[in-house]
Amino acid sequence: MLIDSHAHLDSPRYTDDRAAMLTRAFEAGVGAVLAIGIGEKAAEMHKALDICRQFNGQPNMPRLFASAGVYPHNAPEIDEAVLAKLDSLLAEPEVIACGEIGLDYYHEGAAHPIQREGLIRQLEVAANRNRPILIHCRPKDGVTDAWDDLLEILEACWRPTGLGGIMHCFGGGWEQARRSLDLGFLISFAGNITYPKAQPLRDVAALIPLDSLLVETDAPWLAPAPQRGKRNEPAWVARAAATLAELKGAEAQEIAAATTKNFLRLFRLRADVGN
Ligand SMILES: [Zn+2]
């Protein structure tokens, strides 16, 4: 069984075939998917939970979990009402994580101080609900600005909680990976690890211990090679796992077992989560 630790199942790109897409994932051996609850704006952060409730319990479907959070570029939307909504979502049993939250200095959008403030406010809410966090971090090309700010914030404000989290779609270097591991984070790789130009990322992935690795699709984005550019879906998470297996000199089964075990450990879930 594989777990897709990060997919945007509420994307409008699945409106016409969401059930069939989930069944394809089940048939490909995906036992569970963490549906990311950021919507396209903060007001939509409940949509991943709605999808969990719609499909859980149906036959031939992966087990679905949800997150909730405000994406870095939506940080200007954060007010007391948004934080109250986040808090009530994190109280739901299916909503096992707060995210994806973090810092994005690559794309034009929310001012950096507003992103940092939004991250810190959400860390407080997540800590009160004992929920691990899902981190999105993207610096400008060629520098580590967002990583430097992110890790400083997490080392000060998140480490003391002991809750850990996931570095989603990891794209940093070894220094950022090492500091993330020191914080007790799992490091998740998406389909971009399969791209021909991603050798530096593969070199970092090869150094990460098996008990700290996860796999994800980030669907509908980042379709793995050779589907790059197409709509991605959780059924294709095996591609990132296969690349990790090559890098670690392991069998695909070992990567599946390790990443599943890591996911269950982080979220304190039982071993029989798959349907
Ligand atoms: Zn995402």
Q: Care to give the gist of this entry?
A:
The protein is of the alpha/beta class and 275 residues long.
Order of helices and strands: EHEHEHEHEHEHEHEHH
| Average pLDDT level | 96
Biggest sheet features: 8 strands, parallel
Taking Cα atoms only, what radius of gyration do you get, to the nearest Å?
A: 17 Å
Strand order of the largest sheet: 1-2-3-4-5-6-7-8
Name the beta content range: 15-25%
Q: Which small-molecule species are bound to the chains here?
A: zinc ion
Helix content: 25-40%
Count of helical regions:
9
Please explain how this structure is put together.
By secondary structure, this protein is of the alpha/beta class. Helices cover 38% and strands 16% of the residues. The protein contains nine helices and eight strands. It has helices at 18-27, 47-55, 80-90, 112-128, 145-157, 174-182, 199-207, 238-248, 252-266; strands at 2-7, 30-35, 63-68, 95-104, 133-138, 165-167, 186-189, 213-215. The chain has an eight-stranded parallel sheet. Helix 6 (174-182) links the parallel strand 6 (165-167) and strand 7 (186-189). Helix 4 (112-128) runs parallel beside helix 5 (145-157) and helix 7 (199-207) packs across helix 8. The longest helix is centred in the middle third of the chain and has 17 residues, at 112-128. The N and C termini lie close together (10 Å). Bound molecules: zinc ion. Zinc ion is lined by residues 6, 8, 36, 100, 218.
